[in-house]
């Protein structure tokens, strides 16, 4: 029941934002009663924060293949994530966290987890000599995150230029960002 309600809460939040997020709508979406929701989360804010905390921020990036291959895996997971209901909830969290400290703190946790996983890829690349240590990885990762986030927005808006394939789009974004950041050949 908890998982069903939290999933419904994320879907409601993704569709309606904080202003349209109500316990009534979450209960209806989850197929349960308002009292059942309130028994678990005493306030609307508690429910919203619990739903955001249920968000899976992990990126699975095994130490296999080249740094580029691993970065493509990161980008692909981000593209798939931002194109999902959780991705739409992410957009809402980012916007709503400007005025809500509790949401901001949850967003920072999600973002930190993602950045730490992606940073591991870059650190492995430096150790292997495939990534320049003088290039700030934070800026690279922010650029990759921003590019995948924007593509996710385009996907939700059904823009005609959305990519034909997630893997191909991930490769395109990584290759674009890697220009000038890899070690010269030779």
UniProtKB/TrEMBL annotation:
* InterPro entries named among the record's database cross-references: Homeodomain-like_sf, HTH-type_TetR-like_transc_reg, HTH_TetR, Tet_transcr_reg_TetR-rel_C_sf, TetR_C
Annotated region of DNA binding? 22-41
Q: What is this protein called?
A: TetR/AcrR family transcriptional regulator
Q: Which Gene3D superfamilies match?
A: Homeodomain-like, Tetracycline Repressor, domain 2
Q: Which UniProt keywords apply?
A: DNA-binding, Transcription, Transcription regulation
Taxon lineage: Bacteria, Bacillati, Actinomycetota, Actinomycetes, Mycobacteriales
Q: Which residues cross the membrane?
A: none
Pfam families, per database record: TetR_C_11 (PF16859), TetR_N (PF00440)
Entry keyword annotation includes DNA-binding:
yes
Specify the HTH tetR-type domain's residue ranges: 1-59
Keyword Ribonucleoprotein listed? The answer is no
């Amino acid at each position: 029941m908890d998982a069903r309600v939290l999933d419904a809460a994320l879907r409601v939040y993704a569709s309606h934002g904080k202003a349209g997020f109500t316990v009534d709508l979450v209960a209806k979406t989850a197929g349960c009663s308002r009292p059942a929701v309130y028994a678990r989360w005493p306030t609307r804010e508690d429910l919203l924060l619990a739903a955001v905390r249920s968000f899976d921020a992990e990126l699975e990036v095994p130490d296999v293949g080249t740094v580029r291959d691993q970065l493509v895996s990161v980008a692909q997971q981000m593209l798939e994530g931002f194109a999902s209901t959780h991705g739409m909830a992410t957009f809402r969290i980012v916007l709503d966290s400007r005025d809500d400290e509790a949401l901001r703190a949850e967003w920072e946790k999600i973002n930190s987890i993602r950045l730490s996983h992606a940073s591991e890829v870059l650190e492995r690349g430096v150790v292997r000599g495939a990534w320049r240590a003088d290039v700030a990885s934070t800026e690279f990762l922010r650029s990759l995150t921003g590019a995948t986030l924007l593509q996710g927005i385009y996907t939700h808006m059904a823009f005609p230029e959305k990519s034909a394939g997630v893997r191909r789009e991930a490769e395109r974004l990584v290759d674009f960002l890697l220009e000038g950041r890899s070690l010269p050949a030779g």
